Amino acid sequence: MTAHSVHLPVLELNLEDYEYEMSDYEGARARWCPGCGDHSILTAVQRLLAAEQLAPENTVFVSGIGCSSRFPHYLKTYGFHGIHGRALPIATGIRLHRPDLTVFVVMGDGDCTSIGAGHWVHALRYNLDLVVMLLDNGIYGLTKQQTSPTTPQGFRSNTQPRGSWLPALNPLQVALGVTNTSFVAQTAEWVPAHLYATLRAARQHRGLSFVRILQRCPVYSSAVYLEAVQKPSNINMLVHDDGVVVHELDKIYTNQVAHDPHDLDAARRIAGATDRVNLGVLFRDGSKPRYEETRRVPPRTQAERVALIDAELDRYAI
Amino acid sequence: MHTETEARPTGEAGAAGAARRKLLSVAEHTIEIVSDAGEGAQKCGQIFGAVSAKMGNGVWTVEIIPAEIQPPPRVPEGASGYRIRIGSQPVTNWGDATTLAVAFNEQVLLARHRLDALAPDAVLLVENKWATDEDPDIRAAWESAMSELSGREYRIVPVPMEEQCLTLVDNPRKGKNMFALGMLACIYDRDMDRVREQIAYAFRKKSEEIYRSNVALLELGYAWAGEHLDFRIEVEPAPSSGALVVMNGNEALGLGAIASGMELCAMYPITPATSVSHYLSEVFERFGGIVHQAEDEIAAVGVAIGASYAGKVAFTITSGPGLALKTEFLGLAVMTEMPLVVVNVQRGGPSTGLPTKVEQSDLLAALFGQTGDAPHVIIAPATIEECFHVMVTARRIAEAFRTVVIVLSDANLATGVTPFARPKPEVRWQAEPLDLAPVPDGQKAYQWDPRTGLSPRVIPGQPGGMYTVTGLSHDEGSKVAYSSGVHQHSSAMRSRKLAVLQSLLSPPPVYGESKGDLLVVGWGSTKGAIEEAVDRARADGLQVSSTHLRFLSPLEPGLKKIFKRFRKVMTVEINYSDEPGEPFITDENRRRGQLSLLLRSATLVDVDCWTRVPGEPLRPGSIVEAIRSQLHHLHHSPRGGNQS
Ligand SMILES: Cc1ncc(C[n+]2csc(CCOP(=O)(O)OP(=O)(O)O)c2C)c(N)n1
Ligand code: SF4
Ligand SMILES: [Mg+2]
């Protein structure tokens, strides 16, 4: 049921009693390709919103440009589909002015780690209370298969047809290298239970939660995660009471690695490992300063401000 | 040039000197004090300017900024200082040239001479210790400077500043400026209590001892001038005109932003805009606002857009190169109809250009810099007072029209200081507190009024809204446009708002007669200089008037009608245009002043232009020359006027 279809005037609706369902968060019909990993992420997010009972009007999804950045259109919350690479500054402005709003950021790998890389590093350092999702398909999807910074070395694309020249950028290492980073996790869209649990942990963390979501693009980069998808033995599940533990997956993902997410050195080692794909919370530290709180100032009423300006003008009076 | 060592020896005693003293009574005078960087000339100038304003003079001051941060001593490139033009009427611009200068060495004086900054008959008080310095190179430099200066009718008065200061302090580099201030206070008969008060204010963060030592040097300079200088200059105060405040244009922009109720300034440091954020960083939090120094200019505008989207109109402040970086985001703000105020304190361009110098070269970039059709508002304050009020206007227009407003100030307004009528802040100048009432049933994200293109704004937190705004072309429901008619209609709606805004504006007033031979059109900081030039030209019997535009987009209405009453229309601007008659330049290929280009297309009048990029504000005297030459051409060319 959506707020619109309620026959009572919206104001009289007793929100205390109202329970949001997943369908309350459904926006336009998703237009991603069939089999695109983004569908599963959308579902997990809707499940999260319902689980957290976030009021749609107080929730904002901000994105850049790319297939993945279409995300806000498919939700019934407030949304800002911005420009390529620049979702984070917009989200920063929203948080600075309206800490009452819950803000999610959705970016593609080109969006976040290439054109938006500067903002990404600085947003990690600002550590605003945001859930930041990197939908990493290792390719430029929307513009039809160009190499992205996270494209595996040797992978052929339209711009590097003889294979990507460089080793792929590792977003986890970047995030863990930034001063004041407070939450870094990795999950995969083809493991929905883990995806959901990770997003929930991210949402519950106070500060910027950076979640790299391995996302399949069957059209342009189907080979990228093939092995990890087909062979659960290629995946390490990082487990810890302060991380994510999804017991229903224990039977499939038998490589369970105990990792305390408060241990930054261990997190950096795991982030750099190349033998297996590590899923779970690599790092979290809820004590890092959050920029919107650091910068909070007492609000002023209009009348107070007029009086203060008058006093300020005295300093310039002759 | 006359150097006065022999004619009036500096040692000569007071009484006799006083008897020969001349009192020069003038309507205005332009004083400057120049030194190596770090010798305090600016502080001396600021205090002199502030005292003069407090004593009722019209005042306009400008900084003289050295080309480098830490230039070596005694080089022309290091000239640093302050110029103060005072008058017995309000002063609206920096004038033509300095009539009295105090220089701490002959090299910085030479720099000013070479820039043609000194009036032909200027009085130059110059530190004389270099003439007899033990270093022969310095003595030779002095000699050669004096011979270069002797080409003019300057009156050079060597002053033993250092020798005098040494009688009180060990390090005359710190304190010569107060000695100089004392001399100026004596020459211009400044109220010494006010000077001491101003010194106390300037050194409020320093110890009592420093204050006392500065005052002692001040009094020494005053006494020395009293004894040794045979002239005094009198500039009567301006008729009193109610409560005044005195500040520079960047402080006025900052205060205006506060008065408008905006609460977020997102910026990245760039000269000459940065000082707005310096000022706001000091005070903004007391008013419930913050300055966010972003990682770059792109982020700065993005943060401002995010904040505006969240319900509180924010602003970003920058200069040319930063405006270039913001371009894509400005397009997004236009497309999503996000209220946004962008201040561009213009400097010389393109590229890094002239970082500290004034230019009006960003008009077309501000107007057309975005890709696609991106209609938005551009306003240019013409005075420092308007720098304050423009922020209030800009915020209101941004909000009421759901649009981007670019404010074009410039380095001249940014660093100029002048008194103006004290603003009386009002509650209604400020943004309304957030209203999170539910969105009425059925209301669209862009509920365009088909006549005006205006639509109510929806902000997150309002139940029943939950739109996704997008930079993709969209219909009124913010749904991405897949059919061709949508883009045509939404473009029209965004564009219509400018026509509606124009319908609310009045034609600009004409300064001088409403018809005549020549109409000068200006915009931005040149207003004072243009009107002064018009006054002088009219006093010489020329049929010239001027008009000054604040709104550049949309243009103020009625221009064509005004233009038609003159035989010739010419813009005066601080930007580049080709000179007619130069090699290869024809009437067709001539690249014209930026405003003239706009006016030609909007009015189909053959608007000419006179533009210069001297890296300094225009001088009224040069504008008078331009007017004269335009009129000469008009009266002597076979076709005469252009208003066929
Ligand atoms: C300034 C700018 N440059 C380039 C583009 C073209 N462009 C759109 S999306 C995109 C890359 C998309 O890749 P990614 O961010 O990985 O998102 P995906 O489509 O894979 O989800 C590019 C280059 C643009 N829209 N804007
Ligand atoms: S191109 Fe790839 S990433 Fe884009 S929608 Fe299709 S499958 Fe998804
Ligand atoms: Mg991608």
List the keywords:
heterodimer, A: 318 residues, alpha/beta, Rossmann fold, nine-stranded mixed β-sheet, 10 helices, 16% strand, globular, B: 644 residues, Pyruvate-ferredoxin Oxidoreductase, domain 3, binds iron/sulfur cluster, binds magnesium ion
Summarize the structure.
Chain A is α/β, with parallel strands linked by helices and 318 residues long. Chain A contains ten helices and nine strands. Chain A has a nine-stranded mixed sheet with strand order 2-1-3-4-6-5-9-7-8, with helices on both faces.
Topology:
The complex is a heterodimer of chains A (318) and B (644).
Chain A: H1 37-52, E1 59-63, E2 78-81, H2 87-97, E3 102-108, H3 109-115, H4 117-126, E4 131-136, H5 171-177, E5 183-188, H6 192-204, E6 209-214, H7 226-230, E7 235-239, E8 256-258, H8 264-272, E9 277-284, H9 291-294, H10 302-314
Parallel strand pairs in A: 1-2, 1-3, 3-4, 4-6, 5-6, 7-8, 7-9
Antiparallel strand pairs in A: 5-9
Helix pairs in contact in A: 1-6, 3-4, 5-8
Chain B: E1 2-3, H1 14-20, E2 22-25, E3 28-35, H2 41-54, E4 58-64, E5 80-87, E6 98-103, H3 106-114, E7 118-127, H4 136-149, E8 155-159, H5 161-166, H6 176-187, H7 192-202, H8 208-228, E9 231-234, E10 244-248, H9 249-259, E11 264-267, H10 274-283, E12 290-293, H11 297-309, E13 315-318, H12 320-335, E14 340-346, H13 363-368, E15 377-379, H14 384-400, E16 404-410, H15 411-415, E17 417-421, E18 468-470, H16 484-503, E19 510-511, E20 516-523, H17 527-539, E21 544-549, E22 551-553, H18 559-563, E23 566-573, H19 594-603, E24 608-611, H20 620-636
Parallel strand pairs in B: 1-8, 2-9, 3-6, 6-7, 7-8, 11-12, 11-13, 13-14, 14-16, 15-16, 20-21, 20-23, 23-24
Antiparallel strand pairs in B: 3-5, 4-5, 10-17, 15-22, 19-21
Helix pairs in contact in B: 2-6, 2-7, 3-4, 6-8, 9-10, 9-14, 11-12, 17-20
Magnesium ion (MG) is lined by residues 66, 108-110, 137, 139-141, 148 of chain A.
